[in-house]
Structures are given as structure tokens and as C-alpha cells.
Amino acid sequence: MQLVLQIIANGLLIGGLYALLAVGLTLIFGVLRVVNFAHAEFMMLGMYGAYWLWALYGLDPYLSVFLVTPVIFLLGVAVDRLIVRRSIGKPDVTVVFATLGLSIFLQNAALTLWRADIRSVSTFATGSVFVVGGVRLSVAMTVSFAVALLFALALWIFLTRTMYGKGIQAVAQNRRAAALMGIDVKRAYMITYSVAVAAAGAMGVLVAPIFTIFPRVGQTQIVTIFVIVVLGGLGSVPGAVIAALLVGIIRSGAGFLFGTAWGELAYFAVFLLVLIVRPQGLFGRRGAEVYGG
Amino acid sequence: MLDVQNVTVDFVGLRAVDHASFTVEQGQIVGLIGPNGAGKTTLFNVVSGMIRPTSGSVLFEGKDLSRLGPADRNRLGIGRTFQVVKPFGGMTVLDNVVVGALTRGQSRSDARETARATLDRLRLGRFENTVARSLPLALRKRLEVARALATGPKLLLLDEIMGGLNPTEVNETLALIQELNSEGLTFLVIEHNMSAIMRIAEKVLVLNQGALLTEGPPAVITRDPQVISVYLGEPIEST
Amino acid sequence: MKIVDSTPISPAAARITAAAVLVLLLLLPLFIRNIYWIDLGVTVLIWASLATAWNISGGFAGGLSLGHAAFFGVGAYTSTLLFLRLGITPWIGIFVGAVLAGLLGALLGVITFRLKGPFFVLATLAFGIVIHIINVNWRGLTRGAAGLLLPFRGGPQNMLFLNLWAYWYLALGLLVLTVGISAAIERSRLGYYLVALREDEDAARSLGVRVVRSKVVAAATSAALAACVGSVYAAFIQYIDPDSTTQFELSVQIALVAIVGGMGTTFGPVLGAAIVIPLGEILRARVGGGAALVVYGLLLMVIVLAAPNGAIAGVRLLVLRFRRLIQSRGATDA
Phi first, then psi: what are they for B68, rounded to 5°? Predict the structure, then answer.
């Protein structure tokens, strides 16, 4: 029983962090109809941002997150201008491989600039745990989780309470109708993409004290994020949150039960199965998989 | 020849086709009219197998089509065009039509011959090397017809192929339909151009809000008070 | 919109060019002595075959696969394991691998034919990763990350040669095979169907094109050929491990080579390999692996955004300009 609680607690914490990444990816798909293969690279950049600000200036990641996130937002604006916007409405090969190219580019730019060395950030919270009802929780993970919740909440308020957010939702519902209603669709694309990758960057900063930092760290995570957003239904924000928590728990449970490798396999098999049997995801609306609806 | 029995199609929160039943006899030209959103194209999609009806069935030459997809239905002899044209954009006009001829088991050179003959018949011959994507809309509509014809259908479903044509072009199209009809091809035609359809159809089906309102010869249909009231507020196009 | 006529390069001209290139490639051993260049040449040929195999389902049928390393790996491991465990020569193993991969490709085709765009891409990606995870963890069969060493036993009857040029001819033979099959498919009934399905699936179905059958045949052929390349690769390198055979990065590079060269055309993937592989090798040697991949990423972005028809489209354009130039010269002379 204690063990089950432990697995669930760990799973929820890690799942909550994944949610910040997954929500952005699913939002980009819902609004732009683009699968952002470079998404986890922005997380990687966030991690390096946290690392360098900590290593050079001793800045704590829980503070530097407020510096790094806006920078990644601006990077998102540039990437939207230069790459993403130009791929919208083009053939599948352009839509898919433009961001895949970006991912290869960013990963290896990081590798060239900062080498393959494995780095880590330590904060006041590193290594310490606290115990609630017999469940041991990492302080770093819990603090990161709490800050991630804060960001998720801000994102939620932005999407549902502000003009920009409502415009973005309208575009996600129906591009043409939104354009007719006078919504600046291109600006909605730009804001969506930039906000989403900024969230990924923020997540990167927050996990810097927990995960090890290396140039290919994004690649180790991106497929997990795909699993999450597909399970949740590509384009569905609540679906992504629920699926992220679920995947977090499944991962911490499966890793414990079968060992990591075979647990991985089981979960990709499930992913493949969902894509084939229920491509709209567990919570997505039907028709999204035919790509256009 | 075609027997549509009690077909109903439900989309999410919307009944697109509501217990529609009708028949098309061998050699007929049948018109299918109705206001926008009446469910005409949905009915075509059911007959050609693009969508499965919620209930009801479609018989072709006495054979139940329920378990057959669009490709197999085409191979039985049902050809169709699309209202929103769907050319194979990157292919040449000739190759577009060759695809249709190839599925009939013709060799590649025979298929090319069939395709050329079909293009000539639709006066598209001089565009055979044109990239289909770059054709003007009116010609792309004709390409739809050419492609479907190359599959050698027994029944041809035409979905608004006369939209945007000038009176001369409409007359030419009508003449072609009648000529093909005299060679034994049966037609089911969706058309917004009322006067055009009334000139060639032997029977007209009127669809309204998914249900079959009435059917009969053109002369009767145009005077039917129910039909007139359905079309009130929507101009009856004429040329 | 302007009415555009397609201006094909005449099949005869294409055939003559291909024959000339082939003769050049056959005679190349007379001119080159440096082992490094031979090695690079064999690598280019192998990649050209691999990208050509990908192009059959990815280019003609438009199913952008990011899991093709799986088939390459199945080929490499099947022929190698049959040789190591049962002493069966890779000359036979290559066919066993092709059949296995073909079946696997057909299976993947059957379960994914309905998926569109990114959903298809993600499904193939997941499939590739499943195969990779199995490869890494089924140590009893594949020895996992330790890899398999192909002992030099027997020589030519086991696809093992002392002379590097033998591999050159082996890889060239494989390329002729894959390009030949690709060209035959492009001009066949199936080729028409695949392109029609890629351009508009609904229209193709309404004309009697059977979706599942066409896509599955393409997927199986593509997978089987990729497996053949895998077997030849294993015989050439004589050491295989999961990273060099079934890794995700490899799947990406297969697609990249075909796209840069020009997907959906017979010779595009070959041209792609001739550009991308030497470029990558030179960069890797001069400025390091990371920088080489930076260039790959940039190249991929620029190509799909600015020239989605690939390098072969540029070549076509040059040929047509040249032809027009000659024609206009001829006209003024007369």
C-alpha cells in the first residue's frame, strides 16, 4: 500500500512536469496543425539556460526561470517567423520535416557549443526529501512541481480569460471562421507557438535541478511527450494534462514492476495501439486524425 | 439498376439524410435537386461508398453494396465526380485519366489510348500534358467527368458539374450527357442549375432537409407547390 | 492561374544518362587508389539504395516513414545471425531477411494505411522505436548493445571479401537492383495508383484504386529492399549493433537523403545520397560530428521550405534550360 502511494506520488510529480511540455505541444497542433518535433529542444535550451545562469552567476533556477522563459518566448517568435509560419498549409513533408530539421539543428548546435558533457545544477533543495504519511518526496521535485503548476495556471488564465487566448481558441476551432470574424490568424499562430515553447523552456529550467543536462536530453523526452499528447488526443489541452499524469504514474509503476527497458516497450506498444485503434486519443474528439478537422 | 432503400445518415447532432428511398432505372437520366444542405452530396457519398449510412441499404443491379468500399463499387460500374474537385494535382491531365482506365485492367498503352479518346471527347485533348493543378476550375470539372468516364461506368453520378459554366458550355455539357445516355450510360445528376436539369432529366428527385420531398417528371416537379415553397427565398437559377 | 505544361525529360535521355553514369561507376576502380575514397564510395552506394527503398513507400505513396531503420536492422541482423548461429551464407540470409522485413512492412502497412500526415509519421516512429528497444534488450538473440562481430570465415561464398572493390561492385549491384525495381514500379500500374493515392485518396478510391492492397504492396517492397541493404551493410562493416542499425537517427537520415535528393522520383534519392553522404563525411572529418549534423538540420529545413522537390528538380531545370539554349541556337543557325 505504502509502495503504491509512493509510485503514485512520484508519478504525479513527474507527470505534472511533463504536462507543462505536453500542453504546449498539443496546443501547437490544435491551433497550427503542426507537430512540433523540436518541442523538447526548447526544454533542453531551458535546462542549459538554468545551468549557465547558475554556473556563471550562481542564480537559482527558481529565480532564473523568470529570466529564461521570456528569452525562449522571443526565440519562439523568431522560429515562428523563419520556419513554422512558412510551413503551414504546405505538403506533409514540409510540415513534418521543417521542425524535425530544427530539432536536429538545435540539438547539434548545443552539442557543438557546449559539448556532450553531462552537467547538473544543485539548489538548496538538491538531495533532500521530506516524508508525508510515510511517502518520501524529493524537495526539488515538489518545488518544481509547484512552480510548474503556477505556470500551467497562468497559461490557463491566458487561454480562457484574455483576448489573445480567446482568439487562439477560435482559430483552433475553425481557422476560416476565425479569420472572417476579424481575428488575426497569423498573430494567433505566433503567440501560440511562442507561448508553447516558452512553457517548454520553463519546464526545462524547472527540471534542471532534477534531470541531468546534456545536448540530447530533449530527444530522450520527445517521444514520451508524443505518447502523452496522442493518448490525450492531439489538440486537446485537458486531455494532455490527464494523459501526462497518467503516463507519469504508469512510467514510475512499470519501471518498478518490469524494469525500465521492458516497461518502455510495453508503453510504446500501447502508443502504437492507440494510434491505430483510436487515433483521436483517449480524450480527443473524433475526426482530428483525418487531419483537417 | 440503383435501388436506395431507407437510407439514413446521422452526423454528430445532425441528420444529414433521413430515410431516403428511390430507384434509378437502367438508361435513365435522373436529377437530384434540393436547397443547400439538403443532403444531396451526402447521398452521393453513400451510394459511392465514401461513407457508410447509419441505416438502410444500397443495391446496384440487385446486389447489396453494404460491405463494399468505393473502389469495389467503382469496379462494379458506379462512377462519380466530386463537387469540390479532386484532381491528382501533380499529375498531367492525361495521367489523371489513365488512372481511371488502368483500374479496368487495361494495359498501360491501352489505358493511354482510352484516356486520349476520353479527353478528346470532353475537348480536353490539347491539355493532355498540362499539370492538373494548373487547370482553370471549369476545365478541372470536366477532368472529373473524363476521369470517371475512363473507368467505363454503367451509372455515373455527377455532382454539380455545371456550376460556373456559361450558357454555351452548359448546352455542350447537356448534349454530351444525352449522347452518352443514348449509348447506354445511366445518370444520377445533382444540379443547382434548375433549367438545365429540367431539360434532360426523365425524373427529378427533390431532397429537403435530408428527406425525399417528392419525385416525378420535370414538368410536374416545377409546378409542385411543396417544391416551390422549399425553394422560396432561394432563387431558382436559370440560364 | 497560369496553365503549366509538364515538360518531362525524355525517357531516352534519362536512360542514356543513367547508362553513362553506370559505366563510369563500373570503371571507377581504374582511377581511384585511396582506400578512404573507396570506403566513402561504398557508403554512398549503400545509402543510395536505402533511400531508394524508402522512396517507394515514402515518395511514391507519400507515407513519410520515420521507422525504416527497423527494416534495415532486420536485414542486417537476420543475415548475420543466420551466418553466426547456423552457418548459413549471407547470400541466402539476405533473402530470408528481405522476406521477414517484407512481412513486417506489410503488417505495418495494414495497421497504418488509414492514418494521415503526422499520425502516420508518429506510428512509424513508434514502430521503429519498438524494434530498437527489442534489439537492445533481447540480449539472448542480438547480444544487445554489445553488438555482433562478423568473423571473416570463408570469403566470397559468404559475402566476405578482402578487396574493398568487391564491396563496391556488390553495393553497385544492389543499387542497380533497387533503382531498377523503383523505376519499374514508377511506370507500372501500381506506380500510378500510389501517386494517385498520394495526391488524393478519395478520388483514387472513386476511380477503383484499392487503397489497402496498393499501400501494403508498396510498404512490403520498400521494407524488403531496405532489409537487403541491411544485409549488405553488415557484410561490408562486419560489425553491427543497435546504434548503427535500428536507431531513430538512422530512420531520420534515410528520409533526409531521399528528401534532399527529391522524393517521389526514381533518381532523386540516389542524387540525395551523392550529396548528403560525402558532405556529412567531410564535415565530420573537418569540424566534427555535431557540426555535420547542424548542417544536416539546416539543409533539411531549407530544402523542405524552399525546394520541397529536392535537388533533382534543380537538375531538371538546368537540363531544360540547356535544351532550350541548344534549340534556340539551332533555330538561329538555320
Answer: -100, 140
Name the neighbours of C, counting chains with at least 3 Cβ pairs within 8 A: A, B
Q: Does C207 touch chain B (CB under 8 A)?
A: yes
Nearest-by-Cβ selection for A289 from C111, C115, C294: C115
pLDDT in tens, chain B (239 residues): 999 999 999 887 788 999 999 999 999 999 999 888 888 999 999 999 999 999 999 999 999 999 999 999 999 999 999 999 999 998 999 999 999 999 988 899 999 999 999 999 999 999 999 999 999 988 999 999 999 999 999 999 999 998 888 888 899 999 999 999 999 999 999 998 888 898 999 999 999 988 999 999 988 888 888 888 877 655 555 44
Nearest by CB to C1, which of B79, B103, B134?
A: B134
Contact C73, C135 (CB under 8 A): yes
Q: Give the closest of C4, C195, C208 to B75, CB-based.
A: C208
Amino acid identity at A38: A
Report yes or no: A277 at the C interface, CB cutoff 8 Å.
Answer: no
Specify the 3-state DSSP secondary structure of B55. Answer: strand
Residues 146-205 of C with CB under 8 A from B: 187-189, 192-193, 195-196, 199-200, 202-205
Q: What is the ipTM of this complex?
A: 0.91
Fold of B1-77+154-239: Rossmann fold (3.40.50)
Contacts of C217 (CB under 8 A, 6+ apart): C190
Burial class (CB in 10 A: 0-12, 13-18, 19+), A163: exposed
Which of C112, C119, C129 is opposite residue A291, by nearest beta carbon?
C119
Are B88 and C204 an interchain contact pair (Cβ–Cβ within 8 Å)? yes
Interchain pair B88, C202: CB under 8 A: no
Q: What's the pLDDT score for residue A291? A: 35
Q: What pLDDT is attached to residue A258?
A: 67
B141 vs C: CB within 8 A = no
- Quick check: C175 pLDDT over 70? yes
**Contact between C122 and A275 using a beta-carbon 8 Å cutoff:** yes
**Do residues C58 and C258 make contact, with C-beta atoms less than 8 angstroms apart?**
yes
| Residue C333 pLDDT | 58
> Cα separation of A167 and A244, whole Å?
26
- State the smallest CA–CA distance between residue B144 and chain C in angstroms: 9
* B100 shares contact with chain C (CB less than 8 Å): yes
* Chain C residues whose beta carbon lies within 8 Å of the beta carbon of residue A84: none
**CA gap A134, B173 in Å, rounded:** 82
Indicate which of C294, C295, C303 best probes the interface with A, i.e. most A CBs within 10 Å of its own CB.
C294
Residue A288 pLDDT: 41
Q: What is the pLDDT of residue B239?
A: 40
For range C5-32, the mean pLDDT: 84
| C219-238: pLDDT as tens digits | 999 999 999 999 999 999 99
The length of chain A is: 293
Contact residues on chain C for A38, CB-CB shorter than 8 A: none
pLDDT tens digits, C129-157: 999 999 999 999 999 999 999 988 888 98
What's the domain range around A133? 2-215
- Which DSSP helix (H) or strand (E) runs through A131? strand A129-132
What DSSP letter does each residue of A194-259 carry, written as one string?
Answer: HHHHHHHHHHHHHHTTTS-B-TTHHHHHHHHHHHHHHHH-TT-HHHHHHHHHHHHHHHHHHHHHH-
Task: Kindly report the nearest CA distance between residue B229 and chain C, in angstroms.
Answer: 35
Sequence spans of domains, chain B? 1-77+154-239, 89-152
pLDDT at residue C100, rounded to an integer:
98
Residue B157 host element (H or E): strand B155-159
Q: Which residues contact A122 (CB under 8 A, 6 or more apart)?
A: A209
Domain count of the fold of chain A: 1
